[in-house]
Amino acid sequence: MTTWFISDLHLDATRPAITRQLLALLEDIQGKAEALYILGDFFEYWVGDDALEAPEFAAFLPVVEGLHQLSDSGVKLYFQHGNRDFLVGERFAAATGCALLPEQYLFDLYGVPTLLLHGDTLCTDDIAYQQIRKVLRDLIWQQQFLALPIVERIRQAEAMRAQSRAAMQGKRDDDIMDVSKQTVAEVMQAVGVSRLIHGHTHRPAVHDFMLAGQPVQRIVLGDWHENRGSYLRVDAENMLLEF
Ligand code: MN
């Protein structure tokens, strides 16, 4: 049996090819996988679980159905929030059969203590982003946002998306968009893990390095494109990062 990890699909009604690739993967791993972990930014944005009934999000109903079928087939599904879909909640979880994971999730992956997180909290050199994150993760702000009519939430999410794109253009030339190596070391040592798996940076790679005299590993999942998906597949003997 195998365990699968995906992140950063940025599912969006305007890019149906990515949704199709996801549905193909969900079908493909049925009967082969014991678990599927979604490590955030599954959706380009999520404005609240009442979007499940909104016509604007009808394109995602096959995804909800596909996850639910996979869950029914006996595959354990886990969902960790990204910086785009932090408003995914218990109703989405119930509709899909996913268990929501905390911001940092530590577990035993075939004998290796492994830490899962989306990855944005590791990008501590991007101070402007970390400030925005603080606002968006504030529960009062979230309650007020969720109380808005859905069309207004969509409008604000689109505006934030445009802003974040513009901000990214300005940052493209340097490395502040990547993780801080120091923060990675601090986080891994604080929890005492030899393996960290995350997404967010769209820089898929397996990084082997030494930490406090011990060999450790940081695996970065890839983002999805119209012509290819990306996943990490792990079993007791092997590991494959496809991107
Ligand atoms: Mn992200």
Secondary structure layout plus pairing:
Layout: E1 2-6, H1 16-29, E2 33-38, H2 61-72, E3 76-79, H3 90-96, E4 98-100, E5 105-109, E6 112-117, H4 127-136, H5 139-146, H6 150-171, H7 181-191, E7 195-198, E8 205-211, E9 214-220, E10 231-234, E11 239-242
Parallel strand pairs: 1-2, 2-3, 3-4, 6-7, 7-9
Antiparallel strand pairs: 1-10, 5-6, 8-9, 10-11
Residues 40-41, 82-83, 118, 120, 200 line the site of manganese (II) ion.
Short description:
The protein is an alpha/beta fold and about 240 residues long.
Report on the structure:
By secondary structure, the protein is of the alpha/beta class. It has one domain: Metallo-dependent phosphatases (Purple Acid Phosphatase, chain A, domain 2). Helix content is 35%, strand content 23%. It contains seven helices and eleven strands. It has a six-stranded mixed β-sheet. A five-stranded mixed β-sheet has the order 5-6-7-9-8, with helices on one face. β8 and β9 form a beta hairpin. α1 runs parallel beside α2. The site of manganese (II) ion has 7 residues, from loops. The site of manganese (II) ion (MN) has 7 residues, from loops.
Q: Tell me roughly what share of residues is in helical segments.
A: 25-40%
Strands across the major sheet, in which order? 4-3-2-1-10-11
Q: Give the class-level CATH name.
A: Alpha Beta
Listed once per kind, the bound small molecules are: manganese (II) ion
Give the count of structural domains: 1
Structural class: alpha/beta
C-alpha-based Rg, rounded: 18 Å
Low-confidence stretches: none
Note the quaternary state here.
Answer: single chain
- Average pLDDT confidence is 95
* Beta strand count: 11
Query: So, CATH architecture?
Result: 4-Layer Sandwich
